[in-house]
Amino acid sequence: MTLLATLLATLCAGIGSVWIAAALIELGVRKAGAGQTGFDAQHLLSLAAGALLATAFMHLLPEAFEQSAGAHILFLVLLAGLVFFFLLDKAELWHHGHEHHHDHTGEGSSPEPEGHHGHAPHHGHADHHQHSAHAGHARRQGQPAGGWSLLTGDSIHCFGDGVLIASAFAADLRLGVVAAVSVLAHEVPHHIGDLLVLAQNSGSRRAALVKVSMAGAVTVLGGLIGWWLVAHLAGFLPYFLTLASSSFMYVALADLIPQLQKHQGARAATLQVIWLGAGIALVGAASAFSHLH
């Protein structure tokens, strides 16, 4: 039962988030084409940040502390997880910076059209969505993110999401549902950026959708392997849950929220807070619904 629930949840979070992202892009494009205002990506960022923080502080950490592990060691694991994801982010920045250096030194004699190496569009909705956790920082600094590099990073990120969801399901089915909803919420805006970049690279939205969907499907593989690991290492479940919390906290605080810290009017700032609260309420509602059923 737990394995089936894990596979279904990872399928919905991994591939479902890609299709929702594609639908939102289409919705935004149609509205813009009709002379109306498209959806605001900042609202999606706020919603995802609220969902991730709520899952980490209201569900994953409390569940971990209810296990037999001591508070001291769990806080140490939480700190180690935050430092690990920080170092992972720094390594990804170094990788893209190194790639960028070679593009200019080794191929500088033959300039290529803008966007050939994965430059994101500099207008419209793309400006709001270049914030994938694995490559977004590099794109925000104007560094190229090649299509295969982006897909590789996306696949690794999705694999980790699958392991985290499996860890949550191993603790409790309701917690697994909440974790899956939170992963889906934060992957939607990430996949919007991926789809826009790859569509510009390949010139085909359909090809971009297929590629990102394949990367999203790796979430299921992560869920399967995570289920096997937790089943054989049940005593380490509190630490898995704490690591999952550190991942959610880092993505929200280091990747999503900084993009919301811009000088804005009172109305825009108020809407951000409302959508942040909506993300928290979404997680609470998912938890209550799964508890009833």
| Low-confidence runs | 30-36, 106-146
Q: What is the count of structural domains?
A: 1
Order of helices and strands: HHHHHHHHHH
Largest sheet: none
How many strand elements?
A: 0
Indicate the percent of residues in helices: over 70%
- Which strand-content bin applies to the residues? under 5%
User: What is the alpha-carbon Rg in Å?
Assistant: 19 Å
What general outline do the C-alpha atoms trace?
A: globular
How far apart lie the N and C ends? 15 Å
Number of helices: 10
Structural class per helix/strand content? mainly alpha
Nearest-integer average pLDDT: 75
Polypeptide structure, described:
The structure is a single chain. This protein has 293 residues and is an all-alpha fold. The chain has one domain. It has helices at 2-33, 41-65, 71-106, 126-129, 136-140, 147-171, 173-202, 205-232, 237-260, 266-292. Helix 2 packs antiparallel against helix 7 and helix 3 packs across helix 9 (237-260). The longest helix is centred in the first third of the chain and has 36 residues, at 71-106.
